[in-house]
Every structure is written in C-alpha cells, then in structure tokens.
Amino acid sequence: MTAGLARWLVRLYPRDWRARYGEEFEALLQDSSGGFRVSVNVLWSALSERVAPAALFGVVMNHYPNSALSLSKKPSAFVPMAMSITALAILLGSIAASTGAVHDTDEGAIAHIWQLLMAGQMPILAYFLIRWFPRVPRQTLYVFALQIGAALAALAPVYFLGL
C-alpha cells in the first residue's frame, strides 16, 4: 500500500486512537500488500471506532498477553472456577433453606447437582493443563492454584459438616 493511502486511512480514526496506535498502524499498512479488501476493512473499523470506541466498552489492548490475569480469562480457566463457586452456592443455599437434618435414602437433587458440577470440571481442568502448561507454565500454575482453591472451598462444607 502506498504511504499516502496508508496515512489517509489512519487519519480516519479518532485523534486519541491515532495518538496511541497511529504510527504503528500506518507502518503496518505500508508494509502490507493492502488491496481493496484491506482498505474497506480499515474504513469500517475507523467508522466503528468513531461511532462506538472499543475503550468505551472496556476493550483495551492487552499489554501482557502471557500474564496470569489474561490466562484466567480463557474459558478453560474460568469455567472450572465458576463451576466450583456454583456448587458452593447451591450447597450453602440448600443448607440455609433446610429446616433440619432429614436423612433420606436418596441424597437428593442438590447433592447430585453438586457432584455433577465437581466431577464435570475435571475434563476441563485436564484440557486447561494440557493446553497451557507447555506454553506458559508459571502462569498456568497460578491459575491452576486458583482453580484448586475454588474446588477446595466447595468441598469444605461437605467435609466439615459431614454432608
């Protein structure tokens, strides 16, 4: 793409965006083979950025793509934690709602849901470790420790209350 066309396309973006990304984006456009399709894509992105800036919705460029925080946002990282927290919430809600200890032969729906949530996260945890440990081992272990902590929190009432 020519330097003039790249400069013109970058000028379509808002001033704040250009101040942050303009030079790099212009260099990227000049280095690309940039055809009609690229120009239309840049035009659409510039229009979108002017109408609804990505920063307005909390979408910002991640400066640390291999951090534990960014890794914890992956579905294979936060789904097991969400499952553990859900299991804990269901269990505590059941305990709070119960009027007394009733021992039936069947464990009940709450116990089965808790068991499914706790067992269902095992394949997701295995996938998470297989997928991310070779790439970023330290951050994977941090997130895995959070996942184990959430699972232990869900297990604690069952152990200590003998449920």
Task: Annotate the secondary structure layout.
Elements: H1 3-11, H2 15-31, H3 36-51, H4 68-72, H5 75-97, H6 109-132, H7 137-161
Helix pairs in contact: 1-2, 5-6, 5-7, 6-7
Structural descriptors:
163 residues, mainly alpha, 2 domains
N-to-C CA distance: 68 Å
Nearest-angstrom radius of gyration?
25 Å
From the spread of the alpha carbons, the general shape counts as elongated
Q: Can you tell me the number of structural domains?
A: 2
Helical stretch tally: 7
**Main β-sheet: number of strands, strand sense, barrel status?**
none
Summarize model confidence as the mean pLDDT.
84
Class from helix and strand fractions? mainly alpha
* Helix content estimate: over 70%
How large is the share of residues in beta strands? under 5%
Low-confidence parts: none
Question: What pattern of helices and strands is seen along the backbone?
Answer: HHHHHHH
Quantity of strands, as a count? 0
Molecular structure report:
This protein has helices at 3-11, 15-31, 36-51, 68-72, 75-97, 109-132, 137-161. The model has no long low-confidence stretch (mean pLDDT 84). By secondary structure, the protein is mostly helical. It starts with a helix and ends with a helix. The longest helix is centred in the C-terminal third of the chain and has 25 residues, at 137-161. The chain has two domains: 3-57; 68-161. 73% of the residues lie in helices and 0% in strands.
